[in-house]
């Protein structure tokens, strides 16, 4: 097990910057999830840690040792990719043993580790099969098994579940979390799926175009997004971002921190009845009611500005479409942002 530190880490491909200076300290045994839109530099960052990509500047420390110049094999790290990369002509057992044999691990030790990994992942009955005789989820387990048998200082995962169907993804996500809790191996996990990110992470790193927007526990990031980008990225449906200018008729401007020109309101922070606490009231017309099981998404258009916003409300409210309503949000639930800096306006 080990800590991982990234210090001013940068990577450019020619003159195109992919990672623009990232600082991150991963604690021993911690599971960090890197999340962000396509092309923001997640894989590049992970590949630099693995040693599969050179570093343009900055450093990477694993267990306190600078590994920037170390070969991948010298870094004591195991990586699990999206496409599994199993050897098709080898059995499951062969795939699990391959890396250990290459390192000259003694036979008895190989047997012990393969048996343990097969137990943990419940693939003991599959050891004599070839990858093509396995389901997607089973292949994914074998890929994980190959990482586990190495007993590395750290795991790196690059979208390991993105080839699986929705149900299997959820199952495997839970298993990865349990596995990581059990083995307590320091892990960096990349995904662009925010639900996966929220449920797996000890801490989230939200990235946007090569930079870190925010680092924090899933709850911290959700409850207090540091930037407009994070506010719009984490949460589904996304937070509504409403210009202060369209809050006409409300006295809130006085109560907002100076520099606020956008307020963020989560869909579930809206209510249809005026709350007892100090609140905001917005006149709107209903555009669409989408029932989604236990709750409904109510799409409304603000009378003041014509902006469309989304509310998530419990049950299936009896609201005729295209009717006029007033929606409310408690002032305590408003997230103040500055459009100019793109950051929260209430940071100390
Ligand atoms: N080998 C390369 N040569 C040139 N540019 C590259 C190379 N690899 C990645 N890039 C660029 O670097 C940026 C970051 O790519 P990266 O693969 O790290 O993104 P990502 O966050 O993993 O995206 P995704 O979610 O789509 O996997 C992108 O703009 C990409 O086009
Ligand atoms: Mg990627």
TrEMBL record:
UniProt entry keywords in alphabetical sequence: ATP-binding, Cell inner membrane, Cell membrane, Membrane, Nucleotide-binding, Sugar transport, Translocase, Transport
SMART domains: AAA
Positions of the ABC transporter domain: 4-234
Alphabetized Pfam families for the sequence: ABC_tran, TOBE_2
GO molecular function, one term: ATP binding
Family annotation (Gene3D superfamilies): 2.40.50.100, Nucleic acid-binding proteins, P-loop containing nucleotide triphosphate hydrolases
GO CC annotation, single: ATP-binding cassette (ABC) transporter complex, substrate-binding subunit-containing
Subcellular location: Cell inner membrane
Membrane topology summary: Peripheral membrane protein
Main localization category: membrane
GO BP: any one term: glycerol-3-phosphate transmembrane transport
Family: Belongs to the ABC transporter superfamily.
NCBIfam families, alphabetized: PRK11650.1
Name used for this protein in its record: Glycerol-3-phosphate ABC transporter ATP-binding protein
